[in-house]
Amino acid sequence: MEYLIHLAILFSIYAILGVSLNLVVGYTGLLSVTHAAFYGIGAYTTAILLTKTGVGFFSSVILGIIVAIALSFLIGVVLSKFKGDYYAIGTFGFNTIIFAIFLNWQNLTMGPFGIPGISKPELLSINFANNFNFLVLALIFLGLIYFIARFITKSPFGRVLKAIREDEKAIVVFGYNTPYFKLAIFSISAAMAAVAGSLFASYLTFIDPSSFRLMESAFILAIVILGGLANLRGAILGALFLILLPEILRFVGFPPDIAAQMRQVVYGVILILVMLYRPQGLIGEYKL
Amino acid sequence: MNKLTKWVIGIIVVIAVVITGYFVSQNSSKVSTEQIKIGVVAPMSGNLAFLGEGIRDAMLLAQQDLGNTQYTYELIFEDDQLDSKITASAVNKLLGVNKVDAIVSFGSGPGNVVAPIAEQNNVVHLGIASDPNVAKGEFNFIHWTPPAEENKVFVEELQRRGIKKLGVFESNQQGAAAVMADLKEKLKETDIEIVTDQVFNVGEKDFRSIISKAKNSGAEIYLLMAFSPEVEVLGKQIKEAGINTPLTSIEAFELSEQVDLFEGEWYVNAASPTGDFTTKFEAKTNENPTLGAANAYDIFNLIVAATEAFKGSTKPTPNQIANELTTIKDFNGVLGNLSVDEDGIVISKAAIRMIKDGKPVDIDN
Amino acid sequence: MEIVPQLILNSIIAGSIYALIALGFNFVYGATKFFNLAHGVMAAIGGYAVFYFAKTLGLNLYFAVILGVALAGIVGYGLDKFIYLPLRKRKASNMVLLVASLGAMTALQAVIAILFTSRFKTISQNIGTQKLFEVLGGVITQTQLIIILVTALILAGLVFLLYKTLFGKAVRAISDDEEVAQIVGINTNKIIGYVFFIGSALAGLAGILVGFDTGIEPTMGLGLLLKGVIASVIGGVGNIYGGVLGAFLLGFVENFGIWKISGEWKDAIAFTLLIVFLIFRPRGIMNK
Amino acid sequence: MKILETKNLMKRFNGVRAIDRLSIGIEKGQITGIVGPNGSGKTTLINLLSGVLEIDGGEVIIDGIEKFTRVLPHQVSSYGITRTFQNVRLFEQMTVLDNILVVVTERNVFGSIFEKNIEHHHKISEEVLQKVGLWEKRNQLAVNLSYGQRKLLEIARTLAMKTEIYLFDEPFAGLFPEMRKIVASIIRELKQKNKTVILVEHDIGLIRELCDQIFVMDEGKLLAEGEPEAVLKKRSVIEAYLGE
After folding, report:
1. B261/C128 touch (CB, cutoff 8 Å), yes or no
2. Neighbouring C-beta atoms of residue D228, cutoff 10 Å
């Protein structure tokens, strides 16, 4: 049971990341591959505050959100100038730069050592070291973020985002200053990713830069694309599928010495098959 | 999105969850009384897969060499790609499904992830890692020659050879950074000065420019603080830059595949692993031992030793094994004689060695 | 400061390796307009093919290199035939092709690791005892000299192919506008298949030469590809000369950058340069 | 009173003068036709007036006071201008209703997240969709509509914005007769509401039937202007049409 609870916690953290990235990739049509950087910002803000200062978990989450919004604002302003594929490559760049900062700004982030000993959240004497309680907390956060995302996508703001995805030049003529909208959704999704980072740091009690690489952003992107673009439930389904799949494959009896590599082959082939036969993802609405 | 696809997707989700549940329940074996299960978490895929494979082969080798023991020892390997979230999943799977009695992890990062989980679940955890923080807690141990030990021997050797100017190439990877931090402290008390300190990323293959930076630093010897494959590429490019200043390292030369690159160079090694471990490992895998392979072999035997100490009808509880581990002194391991100190660090002596016509050899100075 | 000549030499060596990748990448991007992440793995395929033919089977080195380059080309051609072509037929967007190429990269890398283990291997027989040459105050090995010459040769070859042959005219037509090329009667899918063959073969050759210079490992592709993409974007995507120019600029900025700052910031420097170009000159140096 | 005037309007595409010192005046509350052979700059003019293209020279004056030489595309609708496109540009993978709602809501981020008068927006949308007969298809995706329906949806989108000036770029192209009647009646209705319509059209019959004023353009220059009957008789206009 302990194992399933652990998987459920990982699932809810990556569902938050999937839902938040879906707002940018699925609804606004911007291929951002830097989500793991904001995921890392949230994790490191919480880790540094919880280990070095007396700040509590929940206030560290809020501070993480603020730092993520500030940074995403700067990056968003620069990114809004890039068009099409260049947007994606620009995000490759920002993810690499932020990862280099995590790795080399030793006196802040302790560099390659990572930060151990991150305490668990404290709230009216609930023992969050017990994974089940932590799972409930994670699911509450997921529910909250899902509700906010749903509110946004159902609002006129969400409609404008979809219009930007469909035909940005046209919606501009009808009076929408689209860079503001793209910047707003970019920052909102960054803030949500920071929350996921804070949860991850406090759950694992140890983080190091290797969890926030470029390939992690590609993994979150795969969740959104596999699950379904412009469909929040799709992002959740994608997270469920991509967290469970490697675990199920642990039980599939590949011969031991090539078991791990075979899983990578299966993972790659699944990505290709989904793109070939179901490009809008499992329950996606928008064809990529 | 018609009704049909919604139903189809719903069914797929249910099936996926059911499969996981089925696999989990079907495999979670009952706790057996005379079988000790050792779960090993190591990188088996990704670019450091060869290290995980070395750990696995070393432990399988140790299992083979096991004489007759009261309990049987089963090994279960799980891949974690040195990625924290997968390490956590692998450990929870080993605990929840396989009900392992002991966990072995590789690397300081994964070690720090496993330690709190092992402590919470009262399961013995031995990390092949240099970060002492991994050994915090009653159930956690690490088996890596502590940086202080290695640096003590290294500084003595520098002073013996009258070297005043040291050049350093260091990878910003956990193990290397831990050793360097400690070395810089030690050198403060000596008159040895680090004249150039070049840092590079793991996976770097083009060191030419940082070599040019260090070239005229006047260093009498260069310390290559990195592991394979970076250390071989670095050594090759230093020679290609026309530099023939002596090179040294801490442990890296022993594990290198192109040992003749470092012909005639002395270096510090964890301990002088007994000759036959290397030959046995090469016989089994026709590859030379990788980083941490000797440590893994020792760890398997340490667990066996701690468990066999209990002659009771049922196997000892993890607490008993943990306490027994702390009492181990002068255990004759592959990495020389090992003893476990009170905060769970397996101390093994460090030794100066040299590469002589392609073979690591002891220098008895 | 006699370090500068060596730095210039290092920059030229690094520049020519990036140029090799950028040439192949630009050639394919020019015709297909999508970022093929699997392009990097072709380098690993080339390297490992030579390792297998030369070291394991002991064939003559030059013959092994030709086989390696051909094999990389065939795999590239196969990828296009079975994955990208069906997707292009269905008018799939660049994002779909990008994710499919991510899947292909992950799967191919794992297959190589299964066949050859993921250990770092060298192809060259004479390790460390290469002939050294004194050039303008710096030191360069025989392999590195060959790399620079091969880069120049391939550039000339591609320019000849593109501007002097019928096939080249067809490729340029497709680069301008694929629909128009079809209307004019060019069998674009066949031509693009050949473009993939040549582009992947070039990547294979790059992998082989890097293998001789330092060594090969299954995951060598992604690192090389990212630098190749940066070089192409800086120089002007789809422009053959641009790719080479961008590669050398990247080589110089990186090497002189780490001279001034320090080694571990190399990737961050490369991507900062990219982002500066994306802001001020997204079309790259060469493109009008 | 001229609601919209251009003075020496200039637009160059790498050397070629698409719009060449064009000065025209559009009367408020009238239907003005823009006619001319293909490539005479009609669509370019519409793109300049709606901010899709930047103005290279000259200026545009709204209501005799507002002057804009370099306007940002998203500010154009604040001058009370809306338009349709020569080849229909709808938000394909959004529903018909959403295609209308999206142009009706507040223009700033905060306003659009916390929308206040939702019923009002829905009422307008229903009203315009009823007018073009697409209300039953409101939940269908725009991409699945027929060609004619897509044209009507685009026109409905402009009506929903309730602006002053409407730029229609060949709204009748490819429509069946009964759809042409609907569009013609919509344009007449706009005129009754004293709205200004600028109509780019080829069909001379429609021009005669609908327009109060027409401007004939050729190679970016103004060839002739005035009542449709008088202008269409002029030799120069006929020659331009038949091509020398």
Report:
1. yes
2. 19
Distance CA A283, CA A276 (A): 15
Interface predicted TM-score (ipTM): 0.86
In the structure, what pLDDT confidence band is assigned to residue A212 with cuts at 50, 70 and 90? very high
Task: Quote the strand ranges of chain B, DSSP E.
Answer: 35-42, 72-79, 102-106, 124-128, 140-142, 165-171, 193-200, 221-225, 247-248, 266-269, 331-333, 336-340, 346-348, 351-356, 359-362
Q: Domain check: are B223 and B331 in the same one? A: no
Regions of chain B where pLDDT drops below 70: 1-3, 5-6, 23-33, 271-275, 364-365
Which residues, 6 or more positions from B214, have their beta carbon under 8 angstroms from its beta carbon?
A: B167, B169, B196, B198, B222
- How long is chain B? 365
Q: How many domains does chain B have?
A: 2
**Domain-terminating residue out of B255, B270, B285:** B270
Closest CA relative to residue B237, chosen from B204, B202, B193, B269: B204
Q: Answer whether A236 touches B (CB < 8 Å).
A: no
Omega prior to B229 cis, within 30 of 0: yes
D14: left (phi over 0), alpha (psi -120 to 50) or beta: left
**Chain C: closest CA distance from residue B342 (Å):** 37
Contact A114, A208 (CB under 8 A): yes
Chain D residues close to A157, C-beta within 8 Å = 109, 112-113
Query: A89 and C103 in contact by Cβ < 8 A?
Result: no
Is A192 within 8 Å of A20 (Cβ atoms)? yes
Give the whole-angstrom CA distance, residue C202 versus residue B87: 38
Domain segments of chain A: what residues? 2-214
Report the 10 Å Cβ neighbour count for A122. 12
Q: Do A285 and A229 contact (CB within 8 A), yes or no?
A: yes
Domain with B319, as residue range(s), is 34-145+273-348
Pairwise CA distance, residues B102 & B305, whole Å: 13
Decide if B82 is inside a domain.
yes
Beta-bridge partners for B171: B200
Task: Determine the pLDDT at residue D244.
Answer: 46
Residues 6+ apart with CB under 8 A from B106: B41, B42, B43, B51, B52, B55, B127, B128, B129, B292, B296
CB B162 within 8 A of CB B216: no
On whether residue B303 sits in a domain, the answer given is yes
**Among C102, C253, C269, the residue to mutate for chain A (most A Cβ within 10 A):** C102
Non-local CB neighbours of D50 within 8 Å, separated by 6+ positions: A173, D73, D76, D81, D82, D83, D167
Structural domains for chain C: 3-280 (1.10.3470)
Largest Cα separation within chain B, whole Å, is 82
Count of residues in chain D:
244
Best residue of D48, D86, D108, D112 to probe chain A, by most A CBs closer than 10 Å = D112
B280-284: long-range pairs with CB below 8 Å, 24+ = B280/B61, B280/B65, B281/B57, B281/B58, B281/B61, B284/B57, B284/B60, B284/B61, B284/B64
B263 plus B159 within the same structural domain: yes
Q: Count of A–C CB contacts within 8 Å?
A: 123
Output DSSP code: residue D226. E
* Total residues belonging to chain A: 288
Looking at the structure, do residues B264 and B277 belong to the same domain, yes or no? no
Q: Which of A97, A229, A267, A277 to mutate to test the interface with C (most CBs of C within 10 A)?
A: A97
pLDDT of C148 > 60? The answer is yes
The verdict on a CB contact (< 8 Å) between C210 and B205 is: yes
Residue D243: pLDDT above 70? no
pTM score: 0.88
pLDDT tens, residue by residue, B44-53: 877 788 888 8
- The whole-angstrom distance between B112's CA and the closest CA on chain C is 24
Q: Are residues B171 and B262 in the same domain?
A: yes
C-beta atoms of C259 and B213 within 8 A: yes
